[in-house]
Amino acid sequence: MSALLADAPTAHRRLEASEPPEARGLDRDQVRLMVAWRHRSDVAHTVFRNLANYLSPGDLLVVNNSATIPAALSARGPHGSALELHLSSRLHGDLWVVEPRLAAQPASLPYRDAQAGMMLDLPGGAHADLLVTYGTPGRLWVAALRGVHPWSEWLARHGRPVRYSYVERDWPLAAYQTVFAQEPGSAEMPSAARPFSPALVTDLLSRGIAIAPITLHCGVSSLEAHEAPPAEPFSVPEATAEAVNCTRRRGDRVIAVGTTAVRALETVADRRGHVHAGRGWTEVVITPARGVRAVDGVITGWHEPSASHLAMLEAVGGPELLERSYRAAAANGYLWHEFGDSHFILS
Question: What is the maximum alpha-carbon separation in the chain?
Fold first, then answer.
């Protein structure tokens, strides 16, 4: 990793988007967009609503139709300590992957004293029993949630969107939904698609650019430095698999909208790049050594250098493209994270 990317989190804190673009007087599709090509030395600066200008008739956008759930809950730990519980992924029945956090202000912090057998009190008389650690010891847990049936209605009453310290206040759940959201299940928004508007979707379709859905429910993104993403539930429908394969056979491009769409497609792509329908839990981690087989580009946001997302982006665009893009983003004041600006990488 270059010194530029390694220094990015501390050097560019002022560039973290602390509120949705609407609060800054912009429409969703007016955030900035940088376009970068693997085999060109330049980048293009534009706004997201001009996305169609960088696509061609016959190209296919693969989008994540997962909807964000209000996955952050107030909780009480031993001796009444104030905590927050983030739901990450639903397993089955009452079992969830969760992350206990300290209820600090302006946003919660990791809670390191959780133990197996600990019970956390939740709103409405519900509670969570921590059973066993999940993945990285001490951060994520498998928990049994009691008294939350039906869970979607209970969360609608008692939950709120997950928020980290760079976002200075709570925003309504609608601020964390994309225009494609249909299937509730993501702890955090599949944010690469947030800048899409109905008008932009219409523009894309009218120009012969196709759109096909996958579903991947995002877990919490508060990973330790260089921690691999946990397993996440996904579905690639038969119609989407066929659309990807037809696009590739024609010689047109498959563009993943977000790292979640990349992960889902690559999970069901064989070594020839042929995509199969499938569903389940994906543990695929995409690195430069593995490479990508089914996508020709990705639309994404701007990520912390310790995030596993950057390894995936390097697999698509290469290290020189990332270096060039992040240098240009820093020089031109691009905003980071889920409410920030966008990055279109073409291999």
Answer: 64
Please name the residue that has the structure tokens 């698999």: 241
Reported as a pLDDT band with limits 50, 70 and 90, residue 104 is: confident
Q: What is the pLDDT of residues 179-209, one digit of tens each?
A: 999 999 999 999 999 999 999 999 999 999 9
Residue 182 has which token pair? 């249909």
pLDDT in tens, 21-36: 999 999 999 999 999 9
Cα 196-197-202 angle, rounded to 5 deg: 105
The amino acid at residue 166 is Y
**Spatial separation of the C-alpha atoms in residues 228 and 147, rounded to whole Å:** 32
Distance CA 110, CA 220 (A): 12
Structure confidence by residue, pLDDT tens digits, 267-312: 999 999 999 999 999 999 999 999 999 999 999 999 876 567 899 9
Tell me what percent of the residues of the chain surpass a pLDDT of 90: 84
* Cα(52)–Cα(344) distance, integer angstroms: 12
Q: Give the number of residues written for the chain.
A: 347
Q: From residue 207, give the alpha-carbon distance in Å to each of 56, 143, 342.
A: 8, 48, 21
As a whole number of angstroms, the distance between CA 110 and CA 119 comes to 17
Closest to 70 measured CA to CA, from 183, 174, 141: 174
Q: Which residues contact 146 (CB under 8 A, 6 or more apart)?
A: 94, 126, 127, 128, 129
Q: Give CA–CA dist 334/342, Å, rounded.
A: 8
Cα dihedral value 280, 301, 298, 160, nearest 10: 30
Burial 52-80 (b: 16+ CB within 10 A, else e): bebbeeebbbbbbbbbbbbbbbbbbbeee
Spatial CA neighbour of 60 closest among 254, 275, 282, 331: 254
Q: How far is CA 135 from the centre of its chain?
A: 19
